[in-house]
Design brief:
By secondary structure, the protein is of the alpha/beta class. Helices cover 44% and strands 14% of the residues.
């Protein structure tokens, strides 16, 4: 299966570099390019795209706003048929990249990412995974926790009432940055069972991936910077 990729960056030289790396892969096609977020939305309206590599700081419309318009409906819920967005950032843990994750992006990459990691990230996102490791996500949100809305008491968050006790337990461990294998060991479950629980949690909470699950855990007050609430 061919993965159709769109490059969005205001620096043509960087787009050229990414294009050279990606077009050498038999399963990746550069289907479209844009120089800013506004142009990306225009191009996307007439193109069939699977994964978008999105720069953050661009003229007219930045990558955060473009990502939000691509990934989220007007009521803030995810668009299930939207392309996956990978954020491109110059600095690790850029606050703009964090905002884009909240806007629906599936992960972030540094612009100097090695070619093999870039290709692997695109394939992973296309398969439905997030490319930010759980521990990295936790570290990033800890750093920027002060920009999140004020947390509610977990008992005051109606969205969490959709989860069973076991799902809530798994959700808390996901939010703490544990992998499926680590959660399985902690709860004495099989890794396949944990994977099933995570899938159900994402479906019940209308989340696209683990990144958004971690963000929601902080927003609801289930987890706070430094550990569980």
């Amino acid at each position: 299966m061919t993965i159709r990729v769109m490059l969005v960056d205001d620096q043509e030289l960087l787009r050229t570099g990414f294009r050279m790396v990606l077009q050498s892969q038999g399963d990746i096609q550069i289907a479209a390019e844009a120089g800013d977020g506004a142009q990306a939305l225009q191009v996307l309206a007439g193109a069939d795209i699977d994964v978008i590599l999105m720069d953050v700081r661009m003229p007219r419309m930045d990558g955060v706003e473009a990502t939000s318009r691509i990934c989220l409906r007007q009521d803030g819920t995810p668009r299930p048929d939207a392309p996956r967005v990978l954020i491109l950032t110059t600095f690790d843990l850029d606050e703009y990249a964090f905002a884009a994750l909240k806007a629906g992006a599936s992960g972030f990459l540094l612009k100097d990412v090695p070619p093999t990691e870039l290709v692997a990230a695109i394939r992973a996102v296309h398969a439905g995974d997030a490319v930010v490791a759980p521990t990295t996500t936790r570290r990033m949100i800890d750093r920027f926790a002060d920009v999140l809305p004020g947390p509610h008491s977990p008992s005051d968050a109606p969205v969490l009432a959709r989860l069973t006790d076991r799902e809530r337990e798994v959700f808390l461990l996901v939010a703490q940055g544990l992998s499926n294998g680590e959660i399985a060991g902690r709860l004495t479950l099989s890794e396949a069972t944990v994977k099933t629980h995570v899938g159900r949690i994402l479906a019940k909470l209308a989340l696209r991936d683990r990144v958004q699950a971690v963000v929601l855990a902080y927003e609801t007050g289930l987890v706070r910077a430094g550990g569980p609430a």
